[in-house]
ABC-2 type transporter transmembrane domain-containing protein
Amino acid sequence: FVSMACTILVFPQEVRIFLNEHHNKWYSTSSYFWAKLMVEIPVSVLIAYIYSFIIYYGTGQPDQTFRYIYFTLITTCGMIIANSTGYLMGIIFARNYQVATTSGVALFLVLVLLSGFFVPLTIQHAIVRGASYLSFTKITFESILITLYGFDRCSESQMPILLHQLKLSDTQMKENMYWIIVISKGVQ
């Protein structure tokens, strides 16, 4: 959310400057976005890595490299998708950043509600269940939970209750990673 909100607040102001420079034929739209992407992606990856390190080891998670790499990868992809969503909201509402900010918060709340953690998707209407696959928050939350509590973290006689209650399994990780990559490619 923070990544999306920061982008929504800053981008409409940058659009005005970009439009003036673009009308003067200083550079093309693609060169502007490629330059912006090359500057922001390393910073986003670094921030996601620091966040992942603090959260993962600060909460006492198992010291297993593959879990930490999955956790960091999911966090980074979720942050990039949120950032791209912020750009989309900033472009749509470039003339009024108050509307962009309000719409961005509303969109994020809808995406969180579609994640199925507050109201289980099994009791939702079929359209809502289908729309939940467009929610990057659902896929990100599920992937993080599978990373932390799945992959044989518990012994054979135990079962991770949280994964059982949310009807998640290790096999969904591959599908979730596919959707995260598809959504991140789609928004960029």
About this structure: The chain has a mean pLDDT of 81. The chain has eight helices and no strands. The radius of gyration is 19 Å.
